[in-house]
Amino acid sequence: MEQNKHLSFQTHSAPSLQGRAGSGSKFRGLGVALITPFHADGSIDYEALIRLVEFQIAGGVDFLCIMGTTAETPTLTADEKRTLKELLVDRVAGRVPLLMGCGGNCTSAVVNELQTADWSGIDGVLSVCPMYNKPSQEGLYQHFRAIAEASPVPVVLYNVPGRTGVNMTAETTLRLARDFENVVAIKEASGNITQMDDIIKNKPDHFDVISGDDGITFPLITLGAVGVISVIGNALPAEFSRMVRLALNGDYASALSIHHKFAELFKLLFVDGNPAGVKAMLHAMGMIENQLRLPLVPTRLTTMEQISTIIHQLGIKL
Q1: pTM of full prediction above 0.85
Q2: H/E stretch holding 246
Q3: Residue 11 has pLDDT above 70, yes or no
Q4: Contact 204, 178 (CB under 8 A)
């Protein structure tokens, strides 16, 4: 695999991260939902992963989210997950916080993982609403209550009804935030701005709202969110971290300009599913092979051509 080519973006360095920080949470600013690179034979490309991690840190990311949706975690074996966790903890070496996915639709299985796994080097867990079995709001509360009581590290809730089939309401989120000090944030990807605003307006001081969608990061920060767990940040950490920090520091005009530049790219990266779009982009940059594990497949050629056109227009040299 070719080493990543020189990447240039016509921009200034990112401002320092100031902005709002009611809780002092480690998970604010630009968090990147790290992809898992694969070889053509389907095995994990650990060398490419190491290059990607260094690219993220050099690009100014504030934290990394590992083994989430974008990492194709459902297709990874237990042994692969352990190896990835150990490698990432060792490579990052505390330079940025690590948020690790730990969730599922069997509460007892999630609790058992929290109680028995090695969480050294991990700064928090990202736990998604149970998928497929569609619990009630009381069921969601009891599920996350059990997780909060079992977790040895801070818990970030993850509401993504488009994937799970159930929406956790603002009322349930706020109930959890008020009842458990170690429930420190929510990654909100419901697409419901009113719901997110309700959480932001009524949350306790120790609790933060993090955008779960690249495309709504800017407007959500203007409402009081503290950052994003990003997909596009895999490929453009420097520029996207600049937009996030400008917005957090109150320079909305400059942040909005970057947001508008990326608007079409946000759509294209998801039109054929995540992480197909961002993996195609990283492949074009010489960072990884364009490989996914079934049931996911690479993005269509027509989509890739559109992505290439836009990134050239943005001044990114591939």
Answers
A1: yes
A2: helix 237-248
A3: no
A4: yes
Identify whether 187 is a catalytic site residue: yes
Residues pairing with 183 in the sheet? 155
Instruction: Give the start-to-end residue ranges of the domains of the chain.
Output: 29-251
Query: Cα separation of 186 and 180, whole Å?
Result: 13
Q: Which of 26, 85, 141, 158 is catalytic?
A: 158
Q: How many CB atoms lie within 10 A of CB 158?
A: 26
Q: What are phi and psi of 40, to 5 degrees?
A: -60, -30
Q: Of the listed 187, 252, 261, 267, which one is catalytic?
A: 187
Q: Is 203 considered catalytic here?
A: no
Mean residue pLDDT of the chain comes to: 92
More confident residue, 39 or 267: 39
Identify residue 189 by its one-letter amino acid code. A
Show the CA angle centred on residue 113, arms to residues 117 and 214, nearest 5°.
100
CATH superfamily of 29-251: Aldolase class I (3.20.20.70)
From CA 247, how far away is CA 249, in angstroms rounded?
Answer: 5
Bridge partners for 30 per DSSP: 228
